[in-house]
Request: fold
Amino acid sequence: MKKSFSFLVAIIVILIFVTPLLGCSNKSDPNSSKIELDTNVVDLNGATVSIVADWKWDDMKKPGVNEGWDRWQARIVEAEKRNNCKIELKTISYANKAQSLTAKMLAGDAPGDIMWVSSTYFYTWILGNLLEDLRQYKAIDFNNTDVWLNNSIAGSSIGDKTYAIWSSEPTFTSMIAFNKKTFKDKGLENPYYYVEKNEWTIDKLKELADKTTEDMDKNGKPEKWGFAGYNEANLVADMVNLYGGKIFDIVDGKYKFVLDSEKAMQGLNAFADLGKSSSIYKSPEGAAYDTSLKDFEAGNIAMFEVSYWMLSLLAKVDNFDYGITYFPKKDPKDEYISTTAFWNGWGIPKSSKLDKKGVAQILNQVWGDHDLTKEKREEAMIATLESQTKDKESINYILDVFKNNRVKYILDGEPLGCHWNIKEPTCLFPDAYMAIAGGVSTPAQVVSAKKDAIQAYLDETYNTKPELQSTN
Reply:
């Protein structure tokens, strides 16, 4: 399955300007002490400050596209005057180049002075000692929660160090969208009913998937499916998380592959069990990244695991009535949790040749929307959700996830740089996960075959670096 990361990140970056300040992290608060800012402006003597990301900047640079981008454009001009510099916006392709890009970073050859740090690279670049701790420059007021979100700061921090920052909530990758018409036509209660009764579990999802699957010509190959994951990687992360496991962790300061732990294997086996059912949609080999999404939009899938960034796409589909709710629990006594691998933000690579304090001031000025209040952020998010959802229940669900911190941050395997059809010994997706989903390999076989190569790669590339605290 091939995925356009430029497209995905371009959608995510729009959220920078519309997502409010909501919720607080369940991790230790890195903002527990007062921050003494150094307000002396650094003169960069006409230097060019390169801001690098994986998308084209064309629309963002156009005046009048939206209010948030207009404020951003004005902040760039102000920063250039204030620090006596020229800001250059660059685009490079991150997609399918994770390991080669990381190798350049390790060699001290970063392509920019301020870089977009996606979930694909966050822990990888920290483990490689490639990013600066932003707090040391005293240029950013991390306690200003009208500008910087606590959740985002906590997710981008390890201990008392913060390596990336942005002014938006991280997206999350596990929610269930469902076709209301399908449930109505079959005389079934939809997932909202089971959420209300506290019966929305993975077993209930499987039961409803069986009831909404259609094999009209009775050949054993459904034309309509009850449930689909957006892709196997997302669904594996959801199931492993459901059972309290992890795919990767930082243990005693070392990057470890822990998919063979008891809880993680329980989740992986549950994923395999889902794959055995004919009511679960399987991604066609070589399919485009949005094939399953289009099948859901066409009414061929009753329930679909979607990510936050997909909301704007679903909203554009004509005459399509859908609801959005939690990814189900394992047990009614559990809490609803949404997983995400996304810790997106802006960081400063250690290999930047410019005065890092000045660069930090630029980062603060350009990416901190200091003119937008908390109240206006909240209004903007609700307005955005109203344009991207079909009912009040969907909005209430998303607000609940943010306000009550129902997002669990995971290391999902992308730090290996294995994206969408790259075939390397360290890659889990797509081939390994698809082999499990298709019943070609068992979870134990896949983990056993991959474990040594993955751990060897982690040891060779990262585990000689300074120790980090555990992510637990």
Q: What stands out?
A: The CA atoms of residues 229 and 282 lie 8 Å apart. Confidence is low (pLDDT under 50) at residues 1-28, 417-422, 467-472.
